[in-house]
Amino acid sequence: MTKIAIVYHSGYGHTAEQAKAVHHGAASVNGVTAKLISVADVDNHWNDLDQAEAIIFGAPTYMGSLSAPFKGFMDASSKVWFTQGWKDKLAAGFTNSGSQSGDKLNSLVQLMVFANQQSMIWVSLGLMPGNNSSKGSANDLNRIGSYSGAMSQSNVDQGAEAMLDSDLKTAEHLGRRVAEVARQFQAARVAA
Amino acid sequence: MTKIAIVYHSGYGHTAEQAKAVHHGAASVNGVTAKLISVADVDNHWNDLDQAEAIIFGAPTYMGSLSAPFKGFMDASSKVWFTQGWKDKLAAGFTNSGSQSGDKLNSLVQLMVFANQQSMIWVSLGLMPGNNSSKGSANDLNRIGSYSGAMSQSNVDQGAEAMLDSDLKTAEHLGRRVAEVARQFQAARVAA
Amino acid sequence: MTKIAIVYHSGYGHTAEQAKAVHHGAASVNGVTAKLISVADVDNHWNDLDQAEAIIFGAPTYMGSLSAPFKGFMDASSKVWFTQGWKDKLAAGFTNSGSQSGDKLNSLVQLMVFANQQSMIWVSLGLMPGNNSSKGSANDLNRIGSYSGAMSQSNVDQGAEAMLDSDLKTAEHLGRRVAEVARQFQAARVAA
Amino acid sequence: MTKIAIVYHSGYGHTAEQAKAVHHGAASVNGVTAKLISVADVDNHWNDLDQAEAIIFGAPTYMGSLSAPFKGFMDASSKVWFTQGWKDKLAAGFTNSGSQSGDKLNSLVQLMVFANQQSMIWVSLGLMPGNNSSKGSANDLNRIGSYSGAMSQSNVDQGAEAMLDSDLKTAEHLGRRVAEVARQFQAARVAA
């Protein structure tokens, strides 16, 4: 079995919904088991991260970058960094915020730079943008037009239950894509 | 008079519309003259840039960063960099692309890093995000939710005439804001 | 008097030395009072931040971005963001890490994006790079070659007392530069 | 055979030396053929890029981001983007500038964002930083302390022949690492 871990923080439940969708996508791939880990509970799961072929990171964008609780996890992973314990694992990312752009790209870049410090290999979203023509709409997959990872937007006056289906399907796509690449990559490692 | 220069590149006319809106906003401020300069014509205007209190930079986002013709202008400005000729001038930026996020933030960061190399002072957009609640819409000012500069989105199957009024008004706001800060800044320089 | 606030986090004392140098530079300017605030103590100082003409932000770069305790402060400032309480204040930044590049630019970009969310105006370092020719050395001012803010590098096996004088003088320069621009800017606000 | 392509621009020869070192590293891996392509000549090599398992991108950092000629190549690749012709290929990057940091990270981020638009998979440098302790020196591998790709620094008053061996060995490492990952990845694709 190819193991995937999704580590996330969520302040008000929106990013948790996104994380569940990523998890659902990853778990839907044959030969893959996926584990959904909240940063609040990560100290019970460092071993799961060690054993994963791919780790998918996600957090809300607060004030232009990843939320502080998620950064706490990133800083704690410096222990792993010293021994380069995640070297050559696959990585990917997702983030949510209240506005369309909302500087979410800065959070994904922050995750990429972090993954590179851990000597990981970054898997892009792998979708063309939607919602970018006169016939497009917010119902399109990848309606925000992201490439470096999955983005979602949640209205600031609504709860997680109002999240757009298109954003959750985009997150699900990311999980599935990473799982497929991870399965392939692991097969090659075993064969090597 | 406080002088403002807007230097821009436009591939298909969308960013030119945005640039005109920025220019209109800047020129609307009392005591300010604003000059609109296409990068194709910039070699006739290095002197205007030298004399400006603020320079506002704009280009489309192509493949995740500023268009090559605009980068050509940035590279040519290394002559100015050697003598730090733009030191302490104000700077600001705008960009257009076909999708909502479309990595436009990366272009604005590229402009900020560039402005910092020129020892300039960066003026943010100064608007709260629109289009981020159940009552919001694409007609809101700053509907894309940008902070570092003005963003616009233009449908890939439509010309510049179809650009959203809200995006052009957001660009106009940026021009006006920079002109107001520049006028204040210049008054301070004269008084010092 | 023109008020400057320096808000910083330091894990092992290196960034605290850098912060002190920034403070020293700012306080050396006539007509300026500068306050040095640790993020651990920031809850006693929100009022000082409200009254400052400029806020200079600094933190170590951990795992490629600003340390989690500093991000906690940034997230807490979302209360200020709602009312845009820091709008039009000047901002600047500094960061330290164990290696030469060490992704410190990512931390400065994170600070710039944050400052833009707060509708602030970003002051660049304003120094040409040192240590970039056959006659240069690590004793040069701005030996790391930064533009967006002040960078320092501290050896991972040495304490804060071993920090290079050139890095501290670069930090001091940033404080002085921001104070001078702030004094000028404030005079203009009063005159307007 | 696993095919690797290195596409680069060089203004004064320094980045060309770095590109040669990357090429040498890639070509040293069993079962790999590597092709070195100047952007000036890229129009004869789009087919080579199509057939490569991995493409390594490199250019000097001018005024804080990739050189304009290299950006011209990136913009021209929008034809590939429309059909997602490089989807799932591996990508990596390198850059040179005159100062230690010199905003080179911004160029590597620009390349990562670009590679993500092309739905590629980004391979990090995979080296711990050198030159970051009291016993370190500029002779250390990865002396600049980069993670997202290979960085080199060349003195502004010296030609390419004066480039540090440590920087070239770091570039060589990147080429070798990408080739090894590419070989593994290709084996997995064939087996799938």
| Oligomer status | homotetramer
Rounded mean pLDDT score of chain A: 97
Which term fits the overall shape of chain A?
Answer: globular
Strand content of chain A: 15-25%
CATH fold topology of chain A? Rossmann fold
The name of the CATH architecture of chain A is: 3-Layer(aba) Sandwich
Poorly predicted regions of chain A are none
Please report the distance between the alpha carbons of the first and last residues of chain A: 17 Å
Structural class of chain A: alpha/beta
The H-level CATH homologous superfamily of chain A, spelled out, is Flavodoxin domain
Count all strands of chain A and give the number. 7
How many domains make up the coordinates of chain A? Answer: 1
Overall radius of gyration of chain A? 16 Å
Name the largest protein-protein interface in this structure.
A-B, 33 and 33 residues
The CATH class of chain A, by name, is Alpha Beta
**Helical proportion of chain A, percent range:** 25-40%
Question: What can you see in these coordinates?
Answer:
4 copies of one chain form a homotetramer. Chain A has 192 residues and is an alpha/beta fold. Chain A has one domain: Flavodoxin domain (Rossmann fold, 3-Layer(aba) Sandwich). Chain A contains 6 helices and 7 strands. In chain A, strands 1, 2, 3, 4, 5, 6 and 7 form a 7-stranded mixed β-sheet that branches. The two termini of chain A are 17 Å apart. Chains in contact: A-B, A-C, A-D, B-C, B-D, C-D. At the C-D interface, helix 5 of C face helix 5 of D.
Index terms:
alpha/beta; 7-stranded mixed β-sheet; 192 residues; homotetramer; Rossmann fold; 6 helices
